[in-house]
TrEMBL record:
InterPro entries noted in UniProt: DUF481
Protein name: DUF481 domain-containing protein
Pfam families: DUF481
Origin superkingdom: Bacteria
């Protein structure tokens, strides 16, 4: 944390944040594209709203991000994400993939791959059932790979022109394959929330968080982003992701991983 406060590392992030805030203030004029529905935020829920006449049965986005920090050390972060959703009556089907790589002074300090799938069944306008499955592989985490599947219930608590707020939760199962050998089967309890606030006609703030509690540890995830629409297809985004494990394997290099990135998003 102290290294992050070094001025040499802070300047690129500050510049990116200021650029995003200027875009929010300018708003690209009164005829700009509405960013709230098209921001393509990478939801921990893995699923956008149900089908409507506006999305023609499917939607998705592709995101590419890069951040370079310089100072006492040189750090580069490269991430790529993709999501595809399609709709059949009350069902929303979603598939997503992502990869992330971090290099510190020329050496790889983080590398992550994730594949996720989700089903959502709408009981009503505000209530839904869901199932999700996620496979992830992350170097330096102490795990060779992890597989998680969860089923549960969700509810839309707030749905207005400018704000949306949802919560969901349920039981699940996680398989841990350890880097040092061996594996473990875990029962988990899952809870999450998703909050979106439309700042302007083109800018959206997103805050999401989830907790997965097992007998040996608790995994918490957080995603914070500001997305600004350039037009009907392209958006700029500044985001910060956090993943924390309360009791990681001995081989893990840290309890918490943080990723800050500036990226461009193509929505379709």
């Amino acid at each position: 944390m102290n290294d992050f406060l070094h001025p040499g590392k802070r300047l690129p992030l500050v510049a990116a944040l200021l650029s995003a805030l200027l875009l929010v203030v300018w708003g690209f004029g009164p005829g700009s594209h509405h960013a709230y529905a098209e921001s393509g935020a990478e939801s921990l829920f893995y699923a956008p709203p149900p089908a409507s006449d506006q999305n023609n049965g499917f939607s998705g986005h592709a995101e590419l991000g890069y951040t370079a920090l310089s100072g006492n050390t040189n750090t580069e972060t490269l991430l790529a994400k993709g999501r595809l959703s399609w709709y059949t009556e009350q069902w929303t089907h979603t598939f997503r993939m992502e990869t992330k790589s971090v290099r510190d002074s020329g050496n790889t300090s983080a590398e992550q791959y994730l594949v996720g799938q989700r089903e959502r069944y709408n009981l009503s306008a505000s209530n839904y059932l869901f199932e999700l499955a996620r496979w992830e592989k992350e170097r330096f985490s102490g795990y060779d790979n992890q597989f998680t599947t969860i089923v549960g219930y969700g509810r839309q608590l707030l749905d207005t022109e400018h704000q949306q707020f949802s919560i969901e939760g349920g039981p699940g199962y996680r398989f841990d394959d350890f880097e040092g050998g061996g594996s473990k089967h875990n029962a988990v309890g899952y809870g999450a929330f998703d909050y979106d606030f439309q700042l302007t006609d083109t800018a959206t703030f997103t805050q999401q968080a989830s907790v997965e509690a097992a007998s040996d540890n608790i995994t918490a995830r957080s995603y914070t982003a500001i997305s600004v629409a350039l037009n009907s297809s392209l958006s700029l985004r500044v985001s910060h992701e956090l993943k924390s494990n309360s009791n990681p394997p001995d081989e893990a290099e840290s309890h918490t991983d943080r990723t800050t990135a500036a990226s461009i998003v193509y929505n379709f």
